[in-house]
Amino acid sequence: MEKVTEKIVAGIITIGDELLIGQVVDTNSAWMAQELNKIGVWVQHRVAVGDAWADIWDALQQEEQRSQIILITGGLGPTADDITKPLLNEYFGGKMVVDEGALANVRHIFERVLQRPMIERNLAQAEVPDVCTVILNKRGTAPGMWFEKDGRIFISMPGVPHEMKGMMTDYILPALQEHFKLPFIAHRTLLTAGIGESFLAEHIKAFETALPPYIKLAYLPNYGMVRLRLTIRGEEQSSLNKELQQQFDHLKQLVAEWMVIDEDLSLHEAVGKMLKQRGRTVGTAESCTGGYIAHLLTSIAGSSAYFKGGVVSYANEVKQNLLQVDAATLSEAGAVSEETVRQMAQHILPLVDTDYAIAVSGIMGPDGGSPEKPVGTVWIAVGNRQKIEAQKFSFRFDRQRNIELTATNALNLLRKFILSDS
């Protein structure tokens, strides 16, 4: 295949009524955009359309005018509302034929994997337009399809995320690299905490202004933290990598006071990495977050090396019976108090036998607040068997965001405590 030298841009079309009504969140587009960016393809547009022939057709025509690569997910199932395949057949002027490789794959899945008989509807999934190159679906029954038209590439894949990812990884990304001459793109990312986006931008204004035009700085704020990402784009990989690293080292010096980690990691990943490197463990005692902090910590593969367990002490009797919080403390200071979270942290340490503890208690809303302790009032304690530190926070958002902010600040307090304990 002849390689193309101009900047390569892509458009993503996701198909399904469930995406438009919010029943399903489109994670496919984000993942595809990340993977395409890694190989030098820039995603300029992302479009979601329902299961309507005219809307899908219009989206294809629009993307054909502005993108060299059009990636399509969804609408390839065996039911009547899955209209992507017949539409693409008409769009590219083909006729439907049975692909023997796709048919063998469908038979294998039903006979060997699912161990149940096929019906005619399932066999129809092996039918494809005769003007496409078939992409084998090793993780499902619906094959992918690769079309070429007027220098454009159209790729249709199932909407099931793990099936789409298999096709992208095994075939599509390598094939795009073969077909196009792609530029080199590289990123360096760091994570900051304890400084707002606007203050951070003002602090590094001179650095950002001095960047060459082929290096871009992006601010990615989220729940009290800001990621800074430097991106470089060009042709000569070795020299660009060197220059990017020099600029990144300069940026790290400028934000050292607030930097959590100089990698593209989440806060809970960064805390887990710290614990693992030090051979230390943590346990959690959670009231208002309902186990969310434990969930974040254990969402990372290998977290059993540093997370032992936790207690969700939502009710006061659980705080008393499991975490040995004094009844007098609960009646006098209340469940949302410094005294309570200190005792929660103190007693979770021997209960799960860990080096460090996190304890949280608060009022997440929308109800439950008072003039003395309004919704968003949170107490967080972190520490070890020698020392417990506690801090009060006042959030002002909805319940879910208050929970997420509580978890973020609890993990950041633990991070700072570990650093001071080193």
Question: Could you characterize the architecture of this molecule?
Answer:
The chain has 422 residues and is of the alpha/beta class. The protein folds into 3 domains: 9-179, MoaB/Mog-like domain (Molybdenum Cofactor Biosythetic Enzyme, Chain A); 184-261, Alpha-Beta Plaits (2-Layer Sandwich); 267-421, CinA-like (Maf protein, Alpha-Beta Complex). The protein is built from 16 helices and 17 strands. Strands 2-1-3-8-7-6 form a 6-stranded mixed sheet, with helices on both faces. Strands 14-13-15-16-17 form a 5-stranded mixed sheet, sandwiched between helices. A 4-stranded antiparallel sheet has the order 10-11-9-12, sandwiched between helices. Helix 2 (28-38) runs parallel beside helix 7 (161-179) and helix 11 packs parallel to helix 16.
SSE arrangement:
Blueprint: E1 9-15, H1 17-20, H2 28-38, E2 42-49, H3 53-66, E3 69-73, H4 84-91, E4 96-98, H5 100-114, H6 120-123, E5 127-129, E6 133-135, E7 144-149, E8 152-157, H7 161-179, E9 184-193, H8 197-203, H9 205-210, E10 215-222, E11 225-234, H10 237-254, E12 259-261, H11 267-278, E13 282-286, H12 292-298, E14 307-312, H13 316-321, H14 327-332, H15 338-352, E15 356-362, E16 377-383, E17 388-394, H16 399-421
Parallel strand pairs: 1-2, 1-3, 3-8, 13-14, 13-15
Antiparallel strand pairs: 4-5, 6-7, 7-8, 9-11, 9-12, 10-11, 15-16, 16-17
